[in-house]
Amino acid sequence: MQLYPNRKRQRGVAAVEAALLLPILMLLLFGMIDAARALQANIIMTNIGREGANLVARSNTDLDTGSQDLIFALMSSAPPLDVNNQAMVYITRVMGVASNGATRSVVLDQYRWDDAARALGVRKSGYRPVSKVYNCGSWSATTAKCTAFTSSNRPTVAVMSGKLDDGEVVYVVETFYRYDMLFSGFASGSLSLQDFGPDLYSFTVF
C-alpha cells in the first residue's frame, strides 16, 4: 500500500518551478550586485568632488601650477575604483558679473585632469567626457587649462546664474566615472538589467 502517492509528483512540480524561477532570481541578484557597485562608485566620486571643491576654495591654490597635484591627492583616496583608467575631474572657476541690473555667471578658467608629470588623467586613460559646466574645445598641454577663450571674452554659463553677487567667485568641481556593469545590456525576453552607466556624474559648488 502506497502511503504518499503524490510525493514524487510534488517533487517533480517543485523542480520545474525552481527551473522556471532560477533565471529570474539570478537576474535580480546580478541587478542588486550592479546597483550596489554603482552606488558605491557614485558615493566615492561625489565625496571626491566635495573634498576637491573644499580644498580648492580654502587653500588658495594657484591652479596653473597646482591643479594636478590637488587632483592627484583626491584620486589617491578613491580605491577601490580604477580612477587612473576610468575617471575625470574638471575644476571650473566661475564669477558673477552684473550688467543691466542682472547678474550672469562667467567662466574665469577651467582645468581638467591631465597630469603630464605622472602621465595620468587624459594622458593615461583617454577618457574625456564633456564638462556640463563649460565644454572647452582647446587645452594647454602643460597646465591642463582651457585656452578656448580670452580674459576679455569669457563664456557665460548657467551654473549659479543670477545667484552670484557682482565679483563673487565660486569653484565648481565635476567628477565623472566610467562605470562598467558586470552584465551590461543583458536582456532575456521582457526582462533586462538596469543600465547604470556609462558615466556616473556629480558636481559640487563651493
What would you say this structure looks like, in words?
By secondary structure, the protein is of the alpha+beta class. The protein has one domain (7-205). It contains four helices and nine strands; from the N terminus they run H-H-H-E-E-E-E-H-E-E-E-E-E. The strands form three sheets. A five-stranded antiparallel beta sheet has the order 5-2-1-6-9. Strands 3-4 form a two-stranded antiparallel ribbon. It has a two-stranded antiparallel sheet with strand order 7-8. Helix 1 (7-58) packs antiparallel against helix 2. The protein is elongated, with a radius of gyration of 25 Å. The protein starts with 6 loop residues before the first helix and ends with a strand. The mean pLDDT is 88.
What is the average per-residue confidence, as pLDDT, rounded to a whole number?
88
| Annotation, overall tally of beta strands | 9
Main sheet strand line-up: 5-2-1-6-9
Would you identify the regions where 5 or more consecutive residues have pLDDT less than 50? none
Overall outline = elongated
Q: Whole-Å distance between the termini? A: 82 Å
Structural class: alpha+beta
- Classify the helix fraction into a percent range: 25-40%
The major beta sheet can be summarized as:
5 strands, antiparallel
What integer value in Å does the Rg equal? 25 Å
Question: What count of domains describes the coordinates?
Answer: 1
Compute the number of helices: 4
Written as H for each helix and E for each strand, in order along the chain, the element string is HHHEEEEHEEEEE
Give the strand content.
Answer: 15-25%
